[in-house]
Amino acid sequence: MSEGRAIWPVAWRQVEIADGFWAPRCETVRTVTLPLEYEINQRNGVLEAYQWDWQERDQGTPPWRIILGDLGKWIEAASYAIALHHDAQMAARIEHAVQSMLRGQKEDGYLYANPLYREQRWANLQEYSELYEAGHDIEAAVAHFQATGQSHFLEAMCRCADLLVARFGRGEGQIRGYDGHPEIELALVRLYRATGERRYLELAAYFVDERGQPPLYFPAELQELQRRNLPTLGWYRGRDYALCQAHKPVREQEEAVGHAVRALYLYSGMADVSAETGDAGLLATCRRLWQSVTHRKMYVTGGVGSTAQGEAFAADFDLPNETAYAETCANVALVFFAHRMLQIEADSEYADVMERALYNGVLSGLALDGRRFFYANPLSAHPRGEVREGHVATQRQEWFRCACCPPNVARLLTSLGGYIYSTSAPTATQRLALYVHLYVGGRVTSDLLGQRVTLCQETRYPWKETVSITLELKSPLQFALALRIPGWCRGAALCVNGESVRLQDCLRRGYAYLERRWQQGDRVVLTLPMPVERVEANPAVWADCGRVALQRGPLVYCLEEVDNGPALADLRLPCGAPLLASYRPELLGGVVALSGAAQRRTAAGWRDQLYRPDSSPFQPADILAVPYCLWANREPGEMQVWVQGS
Amino acid sequence: MSEGRAIWPVAWRQVEIADGFWAPRCETVRTVTLPLEYEINQRNGVLEAYQWDWQERDQGTPPWRIILGDLGKWIEAASYAIALHHDAQMAARIEHAVQSMLRGQKEDGYLYANPLYREQRWANLQEYSELYEAGHDIEAAVAHFQATGQSHFLEAMCRCADLLVARFGRGEGQIRGYDGHPEIELALVRLYRATGERRYLELAAYFVDERGQPPLYFPAELQELQRRNLPTLGWYRGRDYALCQAHKPVREQEEAVGHAVRALYLYSGMADVSAETGDAGLLATCRRLWQSVTHRKMYVTGGVGSTAQGEAFAADFDLPNETAYAETCANVALVFFAHRMLQIEADSEYADVMERALYNGVLSGLALDGRRFFYANPLSAHPRGEVREGHVATQRQEWFRCACCPPNVARLLTSLGGYIYSTSAPTATQRLALYVHLYVGGRVTSDLLGQRVTLCQETRYPWKETVSITLELKSPLQFALALRIPGWCRGAALCVNGESVRLQDCLRRGYAYLERRWQQGDRVVLTLPMPVERVEANPAVWADCGRVALQRGPLVYCLEEVDNGPALADLRLPCGAPLLASYRPELLGGVVALSGAAQRRTAAGWRDQLYRPDSSPFQPADILAVPYCLWANREPGEMQVWVQGS
Questions:
Q1: Which residues of A touch B323 (CB under 8 A)?
Q2: Region B324-352: what's the mean pLDDT?
Q3: Hey, which of A241, A315, B356, B425 has its CA 20 to 30 A from A113?
Q4: Which residues of A belong to the active site?
Q5: Does residue A617 sit at the B interface (CB-CB below 8 Å)?
Q6: Residue among A542, A544, A615 with most chain B CBs within 10 A, to mutate
């Protein structure tokens, strides 16, 4: 065990989710989204792509380059799903997908979906994403192995990884490059953890550290491509290398820049390497980039990557609401990064962001019925607002040309159990502990110093403020139960077996450590008061000045036209007006909605004119706010998170 | 004289501008901007482009396709300038530019700047803009003839136009197409007016009416290009033909759509054709499109084309402030369209919009020193806001890759005199009249029924509310002096020779008609009260809800960081708080600035965090607003037109 991390996640296989909030969503992913994704992949020829020899085909169009990795993500998600719920048809589809993929694997382990560019191996690392795809396929293989116990896919991907180990690096005859789209880094660490083969970790560390080293690899690569008259996609040519975080060595990077998914996959891989090697310098970089993302470039929904230009991070505090990109994949990747940093530091700051993204900007990407998706997750939308690539911001899409997001949400939700708990082993500096990061009803079974401990969470979180935790153990055991006190919560209260515990005595870095000799049936009740909060943004965020967002518990709320009529922008929320939270079983499958008295500018007296002297009075208006993560599940219309204050 | 128009503009040559507002700006254009533009064109090889035979060159890059027409616009602007102010050097440069251009003219009259595509005449009308360029060159030739009295350039462009007359149309063997970028239509009407040759008007009418007729020309053109393996630029391929207003016949177009400059040049040409032919159906279309633009798609600054996507009109009421495109050229084109409609209808609605665009969204495109330019004219800008094509929104640029705007502003300002006055001849339905559309100090000399009438305007408009008009005539003459009462003004007052006139008795369609037997020395004093107005936008404009703009007279004001400190978005203007207008001679060359008491959210207590429960109180803050047209002439920083109200 290295010194590089404080805690270890309890694996998804050991966690059962049985609550009213997440369990139905996970079930929808399993029964609706995953079959749908498979069928679309089938229809789009994604499964066949691996077997095509483009040379032999004289017509037809191969699947678009960027499908790379999407089948891997689907296999990963489906593998989690079948491990938790037996499903023969899905198991067969997984096997068919794996076989389709592996039929395209070359003798030496090389595997790449796109037949058009397969001949020039690794000649265009900046644009072709061969290693990005390999990373997703490796992640899929690890998940597949863990889910099924079958090793053929994992072995195949080890051969692929071994080929990379042989071909990439600083040695004689090796390619001293790295991929334009990070992903391989975190995948290799995951493969190392699954196999114990240190060479995979070392290659991950190489990819992390070589990135952005002078002289830059990509300009030289482009020159060579042009010399050899090989195709380039033109997309990144001449662009700032910051788009793929290759503008300078990662340890010198101070600010999160460029394509947000790439950035957060890279940072996740960096955190992984640091966790395994105890590399303090790399960890310091991760902390700095974490702060750049979450203290200066993140929406209140946990959405990141605010600009469509390059699907990228914008400048500090540039967080426009209507044109927010906040790609679902980027928000998923923020969960990955947060989860990794949390294991290293055991600080609730990371879990707070993980929760914010999960409950808001990630979940918003998936329709309640599991059949439609958001790629971008704006915080304000209007049916007449700008149409991007044919998509109206107020309507979920059935699929995307670049369909990266749907399987990304799917794999996160089918493995959600893995994000809830961690354990720590006793060392000189820390205690034996079982951590609860997220409040999700269900059970976890974990080994603590060889003893099987089961923890049951009963809660109607995020709707209700009470979490009951019951412990099951064969014999008493001394350990700390570490419960996260969410950053959004003031006035949390704790009881152990009916006795109140003074929170300030046991709080460290956002966790309440209840250390005692725990016994069978011990019961902890955590109360997290959830008043409706008006949230304001830092004055540096110019898009939100004069506005408030409504939040209750971890959920950010929004106004929708279907509940409030059109012209949402004309509503204002008087300071101090009471806002009532009430459970509405008929609404969106049952939600706590917020209602209250607001004001609306009267729209009277306007003839066919655009401007006039300011003369419109305000009238009382009732508002109803619903959780942002559930917007656009009814009639399409306007939506707004940040509402005018007064 | 046709029935198609109510009034005729008094030509720019007959108008002298001698005021404190426009005269210095026009002088800067003449002495700084025009020489600068010439030198940049020279440096960029624009003058040589016409003479290049690309076949013979084996290296080098031709000037970018889109420079087409820019040299024509420069010649046009410079011609106006030298006619009003003798300038031997500029006259020599004009002649050199004309000769450079004409050296590239083919035997049969064909003229086209871009050597790369010259061989395939008119094969790619959608993308190559050959007729767009011809239109600007024709406009230049007419202006050059009127300014210099020399006819060689005009004759050359008549040969060019004659070639088009021969080659385009519905006859046997003619090309039944039209240009992707309208401009030729209005240019041909202008050539018709200068030469009296009706075939030019007829070709203009053909181009107008053929546009968008089924079956569409452009898809067939593309097919033919592909069949012949000729180059396409790829920019418009597969795009909606609405981008160039060729999606349906113009008479069926209900809504202003697509590229805003193309649209407004087209509508201007349509208005011209209608004015000359009395075509009532075409005029009805122009009115409908006018309303679409000005009642539903125009910024308070007169900026139009709100989206950068295709430099186009967005949906009704989609008028975002920070991402506003509102290209300077589009705002100039709105002046063109408004001026044409005004001559047809003699309704102040058109002059109001013309004034709004001129004093705000057009003038904002040109720095006070004449050396830097805005291409886009946002209504809110932040130094950390999104960077577009390398340009920060808060800083004017020295030049653009597509440098269409600088010469467009230049030609409008050097011919500004032509927009101020009109006359009407007596007919069965209307009286002999001299119209004043804009209040600009100076003199005009016009013939009214053969008598020379001079009108002197003395005014410090737009800073001061009084306009004194003195008439000079040899002998008394019965006619109406028609003075525009601006739409922004309430409580205008009129005196003739010291005697008050009841405005309601003489007001028709926004003009006060003072009909009498005018004599030498008669004096009219018009008072246009200019209180500071808070303007609100139609509630349908969601970007402006909860906000007010400040306007005084025709000028829209804005807040700049240099006067108000950073975080402008955190300022709010309490309803009813007094706003004081005062002349500040030291500011921006002397302006009336607005000052008043506002409130600012306190920025205290924020640690390194993005969001917190709403708790910031407001503090009193003084604000200073300056005319929008003069922003970004001092230290770069934030700017905002629409300010939070309360």
A1: 320, 323
A2: 97
A3: A241
A4: 311, 404
A5: no
A6: A542
Dig out the tokens for B8 from the structure.
């005729």
Model confidence band, residue B235 (pLDDT cutoffs 50, 70, 90): low
pTM exceeding the 0.80 threshold for the entire prediction = yes
Give the pLDDT of residue B500.
Answer: 97
A540 touches chain B (CB under 8 A): yes
Chain B residues touching residue A638 (CB < 8 angstroms):
542
Confidence of residue A529 (pLDDT cuts 50, 70, 90): very high
The chain-wide mean pLDDT, for chain A, equals: 93
Residue A642 and residue A631: Cα distance in Å, rounded?
14
Size (chain B), residues: 646
Over 80: is that where the pLDDT of B53 sits? no
Of B54, B74, B79, give the one whose Cα is nearest residue B133. B74
Residues of A in Cβ contact (< 8 Å) with B548: 614
Question: Which chain B residues contact residue A384 at CB under 8 A?
Answer: 314-318
**Which backbone phi and psi does B89 adopt, to 5 degrees?**
-65, -45
Which CATH code of 1.10.10, 1.50.10, 1.10.3470, 1.25.40 fits the domain covering A8-418?
A: 1.50.10
pLDDT in tens, B3-52: 688 999 999 999 999 999 999 999 999 999 999 999 999 888 888 888 77
A539·B606 Cβ contact <8 A:
yes
Asked if pLDDT for residue B536 goes beyond 90, the answer is yes
How far off is chain A from B28, nearest CA to CA, in Å?
32
Rounded to an integer, what distance in angstroms lies between the CA atom of residue B259 and that of residue B306?
Answer: 10
Find out whether the peptide bond into A462 is cis, omega within 30 degrees of 0: yes
E strands, B379-537, in order: 380-381, 421-424, 433-436, 442-448, 451-459, 466-473, 477-484, 493-496, 499-501, 507-508, 511-518, 523-527, 533-537
Strand order of the β-sheet with A442-448 is: A15-17, A442-448, A451-459, A466-473, A523-527, A493-496, A499-501
Average pLDDT over residues A125-145: 95
What fold, for B420-527? Immunoglobulin-like (2.60.40)
Nearest by CB: B536 against A309, A608, A616: A616
Instruction: Write the DSSP symbol of residue A366.
Output: B
Are the Cβ atoms of B382 and A316 closer than 8 angstroms? no
Which of chain A's residues have a Cβ under 8 Å away from the Cβ of B608?
291, 295
Q: Where in chain A are the domains?
A: 8-418, 420-527, 533-645
In this prediction, residues A87-107 reach a mean pLDDT of: 95
Element containing residue B645 per DSSP (H, E): strand B643-645
Of the candidates B578, B555, B471, the one whose C-alpha atom is nearest the C-alpha of residue B520 is B471
**Residue B644 in contact with partner chain A when CB distance is under 8 A:** yes
Average pLDDT over residues B361-368: 98
CATH 2.20.25 fits domain B8-230+241-418: no
The pLDDT mean for chain B works out to 93
pLDDT band at B58 (very low <50, low <70, confident <90, very high): very low
CB within 8 Å: B545 and A384: no
Nearest-by-CA chain B residue for A613: B535
Q: Is the minimum CB–CB distance between B284 and chain A shorter than 8 Å? A: no
Query: Does residue A314 sit at the B interface (CB-CB below 8 Å)?
Result: yes
Residues of B with active-site annotation? 311, 404
For the stretch A156-179, pLDDT in tens is 999 999 999 999 999 999 999 999
Count how many pairs of residues, chain A against chain B, have C-beta atoms within 8 Å: 150
**pLDDT higher than threshold 80 for residue A144:** yes
Cα distances from B170 to residues B202, B209, B356, B448, in angstroms, run 12, 11, 40, 42
Question: What's the pLDDT at A103?
Answer: 92
Judge: A384–B316 Cβ closer than 8 Å, yes or no. Answer: yes
* pLDDT > 70 fraction of chain B, expressed in percent and rounded: 96
